[in-house]
């Protein structure tokens, strides 16, 4: 699968709600897809895409944390948040993450909050898609 194809599939899966548990209309819905691309021999790269829907109309943004579990069972929150704007209760964000091997970027969980209402988002387990990159191509 090419990067463009993986990205299109990621957006389609996120839009379909493939990763979110059933929720009532009182809670925002979070869906996420992680596209894993081969990195170098000692680095793995993942591209996270998330969509939020059903947030309060007064919320204007959201922030999500990507957490992985290392080989010793310790949960690690990756440093950079996936941040997005909300318009009429909906929005999306995308963020690339890299980690040194042997730390795997999957399985993972994603969770966060809306702002300024501080509504909880997640946790969800992103759907994982593996992309094949052509030489010189990057996520």
What can you tell me about this protein's structure?
The protein has 139 residues and is mainly beta. It has one helix at 3-16, and strands spanning 29-37, 43-53, 61-69, 75-77, 82-85, 91-100, 108-115, 120-124, 127-131. Strand 1 and strand 2 (43-53) form a beta hairpin. It starts with a helix and ends in an 8-residue tail after the last strand.
Question: Topology, pairings included?
Answer:
Layout: H1 3-16, E1 29-37, E2 43-53, E3 61-69, E4 75-77, E5 82-85, E6 91-100, E7 108-115, E8 120-124, E9 127-131
In short:
This protein is mainly beta and 139 residues long. The protein has one helix at residues 3-16, and strands spanning 29-37, 43-53, 61-69, 75-77, 82-85, 91-100, 108-115, 120-124, 127-131. The strands form two sheets. Strands 3, 4, 5, 7 and 8 form a five-stranded antiparallel beta sheet that branches. Strands 6-2-1-9 form a four-stranded mixed beta sheet, with helices on one face.
In the predicted model, the low-confidence regions spanning at least 5 consecutive residues are 1-25
**Count of the domains:** 1
The portion of residues assigned to helices is 10-25%
* Largest sheet report: 5 strands, antiparallel
**What is the N-to-C order of secondary-structure elements (H for helix, E for strand)?**
HEEEEEEEEE
Give the count of helical stretches.
1
Shape: elongated
